[in-house]
Every structure is written in structure tokens, then in C-alpha cells.
Amino acid sequence: MPDLIACLPGDGIGPEVMDQAVRVLEHLPVDVEVVRLPFGGAAIDEVGDPMPPRTLETCREARAVLLGAVGGPKWDTGGPRPEAGLLGLRKALDVYANLRPARQGDIDLLIVRELVGGLYFGARGVRDDGTVFDTCEYHPDQIERIARRAFELARGRSGSLVSVDKANVLDTSRLWRRVVTEVAADYPDVELRHALVDSFAMEIVQAPERIDVVVTENTFGDILSDIAAAVTGGLGLAASASLGDAGPGIFEPVHGSAPDIAGTGAANPTAMLRSLALLLEHALDRPELAASLVESVDEVLASRPTPDVGGTATTAEFGDAVLASLDRTGVVRR
Ligand code: NAD
Ligand code: IPM
Ligand code: MN
Predict the structure, then answer these.
(1) Distances in whole angstroms, Cα of residue 234 to Cα of each of 118, 130, 221, 228, 268
(2) 3-state secondary structure at position 175
(3) Beta strands in 181-238 (DSSP E)
(4) Which one of 76, 138, 247, 249 has the lowest number of neighbouring Cβ atoms within 10 Å?
(5) Could you list the pLDDT tens digit for every one of the 334 residues in the chain?
(6) SS (H, E, C) 8-62
(7) Which residues are catalytic?
(8) What residues flank ligand 1, with Cβ below 6 Å?
């Protein structure tokens, strides 16, 4: 039985980079069945719902979800939002651990972002006087499970972990710091440091090569991962894996739908292809194929870059070059 891969191309450059990922996936020696499903703004246009029930059902049954990007100005009009579909899918699959690696040259860091709690999922509403509120909420168990995941990951790397919070101001951050410190007792081999998010943002810009594994809450992780992407060459390069304890993970670029370049053929498919590599590693248990794909993508980044990284290749030309590189390195066709 082939492994079912649920592909959610989404909006803007989402479908453009997804096309390259699917070409590559179908070229690789893996037994998969790829099913494309409506999601985000595209699904709002089709059926009025950013996450149609059949899309969610298929994702639940899948081995993994490969996602492009959602959103765009077209859906900023007060109706249903594409982003709500993405948040709903993350919550439904309980993929609480969002791994966002960033590497280039001496830099090799990994942001472990809590993905299903905090400001994104707390109480929200409007008061009678017109005040609008979003609430940051965390239960200790939510912090404990992401902390354990981060310590495990740090243990498998250099053995150092930075926990990022705003404990000088926020009660949720003080809870975060306390729980992470308690979990640290089970990982005496990992060196833990706490940092405040504002100065840590500066640290990522000034000395990213000194950072290894970072664990942080949802909103801080969102922002810090774009900064980490920027210091390693830009959003076109940054991949992610969103994992739970069981069930399918979601593999998606850190970037969004890039409405400013959608339709021009200028989108860099690297982030998408690296997300596919994370899928090969984490969902299909094929680390050797993941490594080959990463190597080929790196080679093409040097030889045939897209405009965002100083070249002239189109999205499809980049994909062509990756397929050619995979062939050259002996990764057999299906
Ligand atoms: P964005 O990430 O879409 O774009 C930011 C900048 O980076 C733009 O200049 C864009 O052209 C560039 N960029 C991004 N990806 C690129 C790529 N692969 N190749 C070359 N250049 C790339 O962020 P934004 O403009 O703030 O958001 C646009 C929309 O995307 C919004 O609706 C937002 O909600 C949505 N969004 C979705 C996701 C997601 O689906 N996971 C993530 C972030 C933003
Ligand atoms: C990301 C995106 C999403 C987030 C949005 C589109 C909901 O910015 O994956 O980084 O904030 O998590
Ligand atoms: Mn983001």
C-alpha cells in the first residue's frame, strides 16, 4: 500500500512551489500516492471554507501533509480567512512541535516553536466599549511537552538549548520559564540558558553561529523564525516540520503566499523542497533520500539560483535542475 501524501498547495506562490515538490516526490524511489486538496483561499473560493471537511479527513488519513502557503489580499475583506484553515489544521492534527531549521555557512540553528497554544488560540473577543482582545494562554502540560521535545532534539545535536520568553513582563512567560527549568532536571547532559525575546532577536542577527537549539512559544517563534531565515539567505530558503506525538505531520515552508511575486515565476522553491526533505526524514523514515535531496537543492542554489538569492532561474528551471542533479547523483527514478 502506498503512503498517502496530502498536498495542500494553497494560494499565491503556494501552488507554484508545490508543483516542483510534487515533481520531485514523484521522481524519487518512494511508494507514495499524492492527493491534492483545496485549502486556504483557494478552498474559500471553491466551497466557502478554508479547510473543507474532506480536506481535513484526508489529512487525518494521510502519512503526511505537504503544504504550500495560504493567504493574500483577496481574502482580507472581512469574510472567512485562509489563515484560519491553517490554524485549524495545526490544531486538529495537534502538531505542537514546529521545527524550523536555519543553516548557511557557520550558522546551523533550530527553532522549536510551540504551535498550538498561546496568543493564536487563547480567548478573544470584543468588549461593549469596542476594545478588541486576544489572550495569551498556556497550560503547564503544553509547555512541558514542547520543552521535552526541544531537550531531546538538543541532546541529539550540540547539547545546548536556549529557551526564549518575556519573563520580565508576562505571567505566561514566567510559567514557561518555570516548567522548562523543571524539565531540565531530566536532561542533565543538556545545557539550558534562558533569554528574553527582545535581546535574543538581536542575538540572532548579530551572532547566529553561536546558537544551536531554541525553544519558544508560538508568537515569538513565528517572528524569530523569519529573522533566522533572513540571516541565512531569506524566506525562500526556510523549511519547517510540524509534528505531534502520533499521526501525520505538516511539512511547509516558513514563508507565506508572497503575493508580490505570485504568478511571475520568481518564487524560490527551496523552502518547499527542504520541507519535502523533512517529510522524507520524519514521515517516510528515509533520511538517506532526504540528505540526497538537500544536497541537490544546495548544489542548484549555487549553480542556478532564483532572483531572491541573486540569480535568474525561474521556479520551474530550479526544479528542472534539482531533478537533473538527483539523476546525476544516482538517486534512481521510480
Ligand atoms: P511572505 O512570506 O509571503 O513574503 C514576505 C517576502 O518574502 C515577500 O517579499 C516575498 O516575495 C518574499 N518571499 C517569500 N517566499 C519567497 C520565495 N519562496 N521565493 C522568493 N521570495 C519569497 O509574507 P507576507 O507578504 O507578510 O504574507 C503574505 C501572505 O502570506 C499573508 O496573507 C500571510 O497571512 C500569508 N502567510 C502564510 C503562511 C503560511 O501559509 N504558512 C506563512 C506566512 C504568511
Ligand atoms: C507561519 C505563518 C502563520 C503563523 C500564519 C499564516 C497563520 O506566519 O507559519 O509562520 O503565524 O503561524
Ligand atoms: Mn510566520
Answers:
(1) 26, 39, 16, 8, 10
(2) helix
(3) 191-196, 213-216
(4) 76
(5) 999 999 999 999 999 999 999 999 999 999 999 999 999 999 999 999 999 999 999 999 999 999 999 999 999 999 999 999 999 999 999 999 999 999 999 999 999 999 999 999 999 999 999 999 999 999 999 999 999 999 999 999 999 999 999 999 999 999 999 999 999 999 999 999 999 999 999 999 999 999 999 999 999 999 999 999 999 999 999 999 999 999 999 999 999 999 999 999 999 999 999 999 999 999 999 999 999 999 999 999 999 999 999 999 999 999 999 999 999 998 866 6
(6) EEECCCHHHHHHHHHHHHHHCCCCEEEEECCCCHHHHHHHCCCCCHHHHHHHHHC
(7) 120, 166, 198, 222, 226
(8) 13, 17, 69-72, 83, 86, 235-236, 252, 255-261, 267-268, 271, 308
Q: What is the pTM of this model?
A: 0.98
Greatest distance between any 2 Cα atoms in the chain: 66
For ligand 2, atom 11, name the residue with the nearest CA.
222
- Closest ligand by atom to 68 CA: 1
